[in-house]
Design goal:
The complex is a heterodimer of chains A (about 300) and B (about 140). With about 300 residues, chain A is an alpha+beta fold. Helices cover about 35% and strands about 10% of the residues of chain A. In chain A, the strands form two sheets. Chain A has a four-stranded mixed sheet. A two-stranded antiparallel ribbon of chain A has the order 1-2. Chain A is globular, with a radius of gyration of 19 Å. The termini of chain A are far apart. With about 140 residues, chain B is mainly β. In chain B, the strands form two sheets. Chain B has a five-stranded mixed barrel with strand order 4-5-6-8-7. Chain B has a three-stranded antiparallel sheet with strand order 2-1-3. The chains are: A alpha+beta (about 300), B mainly beta (about 140). Chains A and B meet through helix 1, helix 2 and strand 1 of A and strand 4, strand 5, strand 6, helix 2 and strand 8 of B.
């Protein structure tokens, strides 16, 4: 930006963006040695998941398609989402009778880190978010219904983010345990969950680690539509990092905003039928930081 | 030359070792565990009492995916898209690195996945500006 006018913005190349943002990873050994977020966050996690649970790559691909359908359905119901077109509509617009043929098309949905494809990933967005925190006794009587911040946790890790098992991220587990301990909740108490989902498979692994989804059954739950706003395990009802979009530092705020909308019963067409009393929001900050907050109705 | 692990130059010493074909880690004198790539402080127990140890370079490749084009770093443009893997070293450490001996195509990566964990050996990839740790799998 030259003089802060949007008309004077200078676009940055994909490579320059990574050079700058990867400053937050590991400049001594990670980036100079070929580190790549697409394989570490997506492809390797996917392969770890498939081997651990005996899932074929073909089944994995189909499951990622179904998960993307759900996220884009949510995006289509959210006037603030980056992508408001369902996957089915997009496929039809591109001339595909069967949306799964569109999904498997190298031209429209190439592998970015086999077996993970482009449409299982984040879409970037500009955005900002803000929230008001207050003492409990001053929160009531305002214009909108308050929710309680019941607990939080934060934990960090350097590369590699996981040990032999790419589906198990210890630092995330520690952040979750800290937040749940402070809030005095168990996974069975969660009514709505957001996990950081700029990689769809990583977000599912986190949900399984939290205990919201059964280990190895998260993708089956996605295929059965259970992660939809009207399913019994709703997740990312704003559309997630893929359909709602990802504005990096602003995203944790927008994920929290969605959870609060749902708890207030004000999420419009995508409202979870029974507004959640307990919501958990998990996000990642680059390189890698796991943060978890627990919100409860007051 | 003093042991790099006791001075501020762990990163330089690591890269100089790599250029000469040596794969260096630090080992903690308190808890006995490895830190790789090496730092002056044990990543497990926080002790500053660490010493240098050479790694065998023998590893098991657990999973292999690939990166994108253009590469995230201009240094790797000539070899992108390259295969990027998740490995367990003979010494028990988990490492991620560029994989040689297999092409970044769905067909070859599927075949590798179906073979299950496979042996791999450390090799130095000589880039224009920097030596890079890579691992080669047998065909």
């Amino acid at each position: 930006m030259k003089q802060f006018s949007p008309y004077e913005r200078e676009p940055i190349s994909h490579q320059q963006t990574w050079l700058w943002t990867d400053m937050a990873v590991n400049q001594a050994y990670g980036v100079p040695q070929g580190y790549d977020i697409f394989s570490t966050y997506n492809g390797l996690v996917a392969l770890g998941y498939c081997r651990k649970y005996g899932m074929s790559i073909e089944d994995f691909d189909r499951s990622m398609f179904e998960l993307c359908r759900t996220r884009r359905l949510h995006g289509s119901m959210n006037p603030k989402a980056n992508i408001q077109e369902t996957l089915e509509d997009r496929a039809a617009r591109e001339g595909f009778a069967d949306p799964y043929d569109y999904w498997k098309s190298d031209k429209h949905n190439p592998y970015v880190a086999w077996p993970s494809r482009l449409l299982s990933l984040v879409t970037t967005a500009d955005g900002a978010s803000a929230m008001v925190l207050s003492r409990a006794d001053r929160a009531k009587g305002g214009k909108s219904e308050p929710v309680e911040l019941k607990g939080f946790g934060i934990s960090y890790s350097d590369l590699p983010w996981y040990g032999e098992d790419p589906t198990r991220w210890e630092f995330d587990k520690r952040a979750v345990d800290a937040a749940f301990g402070m809030a005095d909740i168990k996974s069975a108490d969660i009514d709505y969950l957001h996990t950081h989902d700029c990689s769809h498979i990583s977000g599912i692994c986190t949900a399984e680690m939290i205990g919201y989804l059964d280990p190895g059954k998260g993708l089956a739950a996605a295929r059965d539509g259970r992660l939809r706003f009207d399913g019994d395990r709703p997740m990312s009802t704003h559309g997630g990092r893929h359909a709602f979009g990802h504005a990096w530092a602003a995203s944790a705020g927008s994920d929290t905003y969605e959870a609060v909308l749902q708890m207030r019963g004000k999420a419009g067409a995508r409202q979870i039928p029974k507004p959640p009393a307990t919501s958990v929001i998990h996000t990642h900050g680059y390189a890698m930081i796991g943060t978890v907050i627990v919100l409860g109705s007051m | 030359m003093p042991d790099f692990a006791q001075g501020p130059g762990a990163i330089r010493a690591y890269y100089e070792g790599l250029a000469a074909g040596r794969f260096l880690a630090s080992v903690c004198k308190s808890c006995g565990r490895y830190t790789f790539p090496p730092t002056g402080c044990c990543e497990h127990c926080g002790s500053w009492e660490v010493e240098t140890r050479k790694l065998s370079g023998r590893a098991t490749l657990l999973y292999a995916s690939h990166n994108i084009t253009p590469a995230c770093h201009p240094r790797f443009e000539p070899i992108a898209p390259y295969v990027y893997g998740h490995l367990r070293l003979e010494e028990g450490l988990v490492v991620q690195a560029i994989i040689l001996g297999v092409h970044a195509t769905p067909h070859e990566l599927q075949r590798l996945f179906d073979r299950g964990p496979v042996p791999a050996n450390a090799e130095v990839l000589k880039m224009d500006d920097l030596p890079v740790l890579a691992f080669r799998v047998a065909a």
